[in-house]
Amino acid sequence: GAVVSQHPSWVICKSGTSVKIECRSLDFQATTMFWYRQFPKQSLMLMATSNEGSKATYEQGVEKDKFLINHASLTLSTLTVTSAHPEDSSFYICSARSNEAFFGQGTRLTVV
Amino acid sequence: RKEVEQDPGPFNVPEGATVAFNCTYSNSASQSFFWYRQDCRKEPKLLMSVYSSGNEDGRFTAQLNRASQYISLLIRDSKLSDSATYLCVVGTTRTYKYIFGTGTRLKVLA
Fold this sequence. Notes:
Oligomer: heterodimer
Order of helices and strands of chain B: EEEEEEEEEEE
Distance between the termini of chain A: 37 Å
Largest sheet of chain B: 6 strands, mixed
Mean pLDDT of chain B: 91
Number of helices of chain A: 0
Shape of chain A: globular
Largest interface: A-B, 21 and 18 residues
Radius of gyration of chain B: 13 Å
Helix content of chain A: under 10%
Mean pLDDT of chain A: 90
Strand content of chain A: over 45%
Number of helices of chain B: 0
Number of strands of chain B: 11
Low-confidence stretches of chain B: none
Largest sheet of chain A: 7 strands, mixed
């Protein structure tokens, strides 16, 4: 079946640094990918919709200058958390759809 | 009101029990409905789609009630391995976005 690969699976970084997370669709082309964030004991919250070849669409309350999304090819979307702070520590998951949604493994970001 | 609402639980049930979860959604234009399972610190995985006619997969039965805007998941003969969080997911064809419920936590006890 379709597979979405996300990398890295976990990262610890210092406050103020930037972190890039990659999301790849391995056996299908995804013109649209989705980035979610999940805080402990909370639901997955959609952050943004990544569109191949155009600007991402951000959900209300998500800072586009802080969470940079690049979708340069049909199989790769990246999310960069810029100037990360401890409150950005969360579980980030990407998703891509063919006829159903497939999720990456998730990235646990800890900002210290 | 949240777009998708679920009882967070936890539901603690003995092995072999039958357990049911409900999920309500607010957008009447919703067209896609799913149940996902999420294990602790893992990504969600599709458990089953929910069709208007209802569908069954082994011990799992999903139903959709459009008039009342809810979907349900029934698990029969619960196994220890069924312990997880079950996420109700609703989508619209127009936006291709999925909205997740907060999830219902199930713990099956030996």
